[in-house]
């Protein structure tokens, strides 16, 4: 039974659609709408109420790029004395820049922000809680291009550790890196790298916590603010993909899904064609 839910980055786009879907599926559950801006969160809540949804939705100020903000959000929820049944890490950023400082910002939210959120909320997660990390097939494309040494680290979950993943993150922006990073084929390549590392972390965390259900989920190339609404898939469809593991309990923890279909962690097909194609099954 789902009684308490937290969705980060939920005042718009895919996160907002996830809130709507979960409000309909679990009308009695307390759902926390995580948002950096309380004002925008209240606007989103008003939209929910206009659709006769969100009776038990509460706006929660939460910036996953700030550990202090994450801790404040945790304290607010923990004071209720309730366990958290669902944690959906939807918040993420894409910066169209090749500047190493911008790459650090992307990593800080898309990887470190999610890890910090999970670590902080772990004490109040229900014993069989579900965690969903919203990822992207760009991570699979990026992982394919990496040197074999790096790919082996990311793929060998038996020998993987957070310290290894953290070292990879730090190495990416070094003037003289340890690894032979490929030349970025696009200015937003750090986004793909961040999602490849997030996928590896998802597998690692799932292996370390077999009692929990843990998934990386790709919503597809949706029309949202993160890509200037260039996507050909709706945010609603993306929302359905994200909640699929919640509403369909037969999926295997630790895997990478889109619309309930298991995806590869490294894809040559995507790496060779970075332009989304609506007729391509990998991009729909």
TrEMBL record:
Annotated GO MF terms: oxidoreductase activity
SUPFAM superfamilies xref list: NAD(P)-binding Rossmann-fold domains
Pfam families in UniProt: adh_short
Signal sequence extent: none
A GO cellular component entry from the record: membrane
Keywords assigned by UniProt, alphabetized: NADP, Oxidoreductase
Family in the record: Belongs to the short-chain dehydrogenases/reductases (SDR) family.
PANTHER family: (+)-NEOMENTHOL DEHYDROGENASE, SHORT-CHAIN DEHYDROGENASE_REDUCTASE
Protein name from the UniProt record: Uncharacterized protein
């Amino acid at each position: 039974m789902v009684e308490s839910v937290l969705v980060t980055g939920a005042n718009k786009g895919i996160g907002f659609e996830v809130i709507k879907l979960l409000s309909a599926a679990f009308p009695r559950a307390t759902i926390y709408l995580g948002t950096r801006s309380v004002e925008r969160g209240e606007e989103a809540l008003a939209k929910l109420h206009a659709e006769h949804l969100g009776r038990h939705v509460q706006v929660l100020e939460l910036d996953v790029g700030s550990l202090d903000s994450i801790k404040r959000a945790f304290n607010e929820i923990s004071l209720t004395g309730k366990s958290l049944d669902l944690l959906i890490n939807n918040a993420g950023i894409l910066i169209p820049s090749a500047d190493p400082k911008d790459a650090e910002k992307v990593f800080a939210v898309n990887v470190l922000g999610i890890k910090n959120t999970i670590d902080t909320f772990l004490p109040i997660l229900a014993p069989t809680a579900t965690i969903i990390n919203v990822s992207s097939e760009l991570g699979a494309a990026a992982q394919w291009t990496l040197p074999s040494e790096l790919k082996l680290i990311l793929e060998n979950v038996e020998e993987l550790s957070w310290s290894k993943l953290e070292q990879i993150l730090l190495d990416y922006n070094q003037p003289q890196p340890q690894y032979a990073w490929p030349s970025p084929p696009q200015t937003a390549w750090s986004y793909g790298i961040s999602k490849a590392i997030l996928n590896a972390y998802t597998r690692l965390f799932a292996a370390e916590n077999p009692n929990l259900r843990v998934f990386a989920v790709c919503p597809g190339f949706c029309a949202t603010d993160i890509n200037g609404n260039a996507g050909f898939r709706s945010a609603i469809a993306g929302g359905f993909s994200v909640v699929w593991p919640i509403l369909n309990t037969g999926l295997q923890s630790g895997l990478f899904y889109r619309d309930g279909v298991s995806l590869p962690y490294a894809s040559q097909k995507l790496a060779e064609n970075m332009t989304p194609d609506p007729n391509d099954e990998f991009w729909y």
